[in-house]
Specification:
Elements (H helix, E strand, L loop, with lengths): L6 H6 L20 H52 L2 E6 L3 E7 L8 E8 L7 E3 L7 E2 L8 E6 L4 E6 L5 E3 L1
Antiparallel strand pairs: 1-2, 1-5, 2-3, 4-6, 6-7, 7-8
């Protein structure tokens, strides 16, 4: 039960229904030219700062994208070798690479191109396999031991393929 001394507090919290919202047509509304110019200047400064910030981190994103694309195609070559019981190799040039199927273990020197990619989506990224040859994946899951280096003006990343066929990017 509510005690009698709480009723005065409840009466004080009631909203009066007699209050009305009025509109004065003579009151000036809108923004001044100075206020609009200040907002446009702030917007311009923020846009410039975000553009410059994006330009500094974009090469890193392109390099990471190229690493992920190459690693994915290397894994694809490894899986296709096991699936089709054929050898697959990835032949690299400076700005592109090609996935080829063949069977060098039987003495054949014919390689058929299955997939070709370039780094046009990843501008500024180049590939270097160094002194090692291009990776070859066998149907049993093994591979040639190869280190592939992808680089841009800011950074260098490597993909290492072990003899056991493990593909590791760092």
């Amino acid at each position: 039960m509510i005690s009698e001394n709480l009723y005065p507090l409840v009466d004080n919290c009631r909203v009066k229904a007699s209050q009305e919202i009025t509109f004065d047509p003579n009151r000036e509304q809108g923004f001044t030219l100075v206020e609009i110019m200040i907002v446009i200047a702030i917007f311009g400064i923020l846009t410039t700062m975000s553009y410059l910030g994006l330009q500094s981190i974009l090469p890193g994103y392109r390099l990471n994208g190229a690493i992920n694309a190459v690693r994915g195609d290397l894994n694809n070559a490894k899986m296709l070798a096991a699936k089709r019981n054929r050898q697959y190799r990835v032949v690299f040039s400076t700005n592109s690479y090609e996935l080829q199927s063949g069977d060098a273990s039987s003495g054949s020197t014919d390689w058929t191109a299955d997939l070709q990619r370039d780094f046009s989506d990843y501008s500024g990224v180049t590939v270097d396999t160094g002194a090692t040859s291009n990776p070859v994946f066998s149907p049993r899951g093994t591979a040639s031991n190869v280190t592939i280096t992808l680089q841009n003006a800011d950074d260098t990343k490597t993909i290492t393929i072990s003899v056991a066929g493990r593909i590791r990017a760092s």
